[in-house]
């Protein structure tokens, strides 16, 4: 089995996790910028974080033969402070030319506040101006439905945004249809408690198809499983899906989306 | 996949989760003090399981979701609690 981990917060993981992922067939990891679990006090903290994502983490992954890519933004959990967000947004263009940066993400909403929406619009504008791919985080639990609607409104109201260059992550049964119907890619995040279990993710694939869908573990410092994608692949095989169908979903699909950024290349 | 095979694959897991849910409701009954809106939200969501038509998972999620469309004035914090207080 081979797979891409298209959404993993590797800075939260121990090096043994890299070993396990490489052993399980991981061919590349992609790391969106994320909330650290605490609020950073200034843009300087983000500067260091972006250096960690673009310099240090690729070296750690390379020890296991894993290409490491990343996405940059200020996460919606820290978007309530508009002044801080503006400072961070001003930093991002300096990093966009770095060889492993794939685009802007994971932007989106958390509690669906007015300031979060403003910062989302600023990120979308930056992505459009810089012709970057977009990776979107949708809110948790009771906030997901409303947040997904608001996010779709923001993206669809900007005529520069092409849906096929955006992935809207953490979809569940009540949001996946409107994301796919609008022409966007949909990400299913495999979590033990919230978001999707493996069984539900495979249900969604069976109901809505696998044309513009990927699966990720989003493994971070919370309750999450770095090997969630290969576990979901096993779930597919138990259900009778072919090895080719599994490969298409967990390997070829992420490559198809991510290759829209010319910097995403796997070793021959 | 046949229903028989799906039962072979998932029946024990569903059974265990169902008993866990039943035990949780018993535990709440044995508890002290007033419950909050989450208990009612959960009971309403459970009612979706008894309906015969497809889309139970989607309807459970919808029943626990904020149905409004306007952004709120300011984020009250960072976390979500799993049900909409109304």
Give me the strand/helix succession of chain B: HHH
Proportion of residues in β-strands of chain A: 15-25%
Q: How many β strands of chain A by DSSP?
A: 8
Count of domains of chain B:
2
Percentage of residues in DSSP E strands of chain B = under 5%
CATH fold field value of chain A: TIM Barrel
The geometry of chain A reads as: globular
Helix content of chain A: 40-55%
How many discrete domains of chain A?
Answer: 1
Query: Mean of residue pLDDT of chain B?
Result: 97
Largest sheet of chain B: none
Pick out the low-confidence regions of chain B.
none
Q: Which CATH architecture of chain A is right?
A: Alpha-Beta Barrel
Question: How many E-type strands of chain B?
Answer: 0
Oligomer: heterodimer
Folded structure, characterized:
The complex is a heterodimer of chains A (268) and B (86). In chain A, helix 4 (114-130) crosses helix 5 (144-156) and helix 7 (198-208) crosses helix 8. Chain A has a single domain (3-258), classed as TIM Barrel (Alpha-Beta Barrel), CATH 3.20.20. Chain A is 44% helix and 15% strand. An eight-stranded parallel sheet of chain A has the order 1-2-3-4-5-6-7-8. The longest helix of chain A has 20 residues, at 43-62. Chain A is of the alpha/beta class and 268 residues long. With 86 residues, chain B is an all-alpha fold. Chain B folds into two domains: 1-31; 34-64, no CATH class. In chain B, 55% of the residues lie in helices and 0% in strands. Chain B has helices spanning 3-30, 37-47, 56-63. Chain B is extended, with a radius of gyration of 17 Å. The N and C termini of chain B lie far apart (40 Å). The model of chain B has no long low-confidence stretch (mean pLDDT 97). The A-B interface holds A 35, 77, 80, 110-117, 139-146, 149-150, 172-174, 199-200, 203, 238-240 and B 1, 5, 9-10, 13, 55, 57-58, 61-62, 64-69, 71-84.
């Amino acid at each position: 089995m081979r797979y891409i981990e298209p959404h993993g917060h590797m800075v939260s993981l121990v090096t043994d996790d890299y070993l396990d992922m490489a052993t399980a067939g991981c061919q590349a990891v992609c790391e969106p910028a994320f909330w650290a679990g605490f609020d950073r006090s200034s843009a300087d903290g983000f500067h260091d974080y972006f250096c960690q994502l673009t310099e240090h983490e690729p070296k750690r992954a390379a020890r296991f033969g894993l290409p490491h890519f990343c996405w940059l933004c200020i996460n919606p959990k820290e978007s309530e402070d508009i002044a801080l967000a503006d400072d961070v947004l001003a930093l991002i263009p300096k990093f966009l030319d770095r060889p492993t940066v794939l685009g802007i993400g994971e932007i989106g909403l958390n509690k669906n506040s007015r300031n979060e929406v403003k910062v989302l619009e600023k990120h979308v504008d930056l992505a459009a101006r810089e012709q970057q791919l977009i990776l979107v985080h949708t809110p948790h639990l009771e906030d997901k439905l409303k947040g997904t609607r608001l996010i779709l409104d923001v993206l669809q109201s900007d005529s520069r945004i092409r849906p096929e260059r955006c992935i809207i992550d953490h979809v569940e049964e009540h949001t996946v249809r409107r994301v796919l119907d609008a022409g966007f890619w949909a990400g299913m995040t495999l979590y033990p408690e919230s978001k999707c279990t493996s069984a539900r993710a495979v249900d969604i694939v069976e109901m809505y198809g696998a044309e513009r869908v990927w699966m990720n573990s989003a493994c971070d410092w919370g309750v999450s499983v770095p090997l969630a994608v290969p576990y979901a692949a096993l779930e597919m095989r138990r259900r009778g899906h072919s090895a080719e169908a599994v490969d298409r979903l967990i390997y070829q699909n992420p490559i198809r989306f991510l290759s829209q950024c010319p910097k995403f290349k796997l070793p021959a | 996949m046949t229903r028989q095979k799906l039962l072979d694959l998932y029946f024990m897991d569903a059974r265990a989760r169902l008993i866990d849910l039943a035990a949780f409701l018993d535990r709440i009954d044995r508890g002290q003090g007033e419950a909050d809106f989450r208990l009612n939200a959960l009971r309403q969501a459970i009612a979706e399981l008894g309906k015969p038509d497809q889309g139970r998972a989607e309807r459970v999620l919808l029943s626990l979701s904020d149905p409004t469309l306007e952004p709120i004035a300011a984020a009250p914090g960072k976390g979500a609690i799993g049900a909409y207080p109304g």
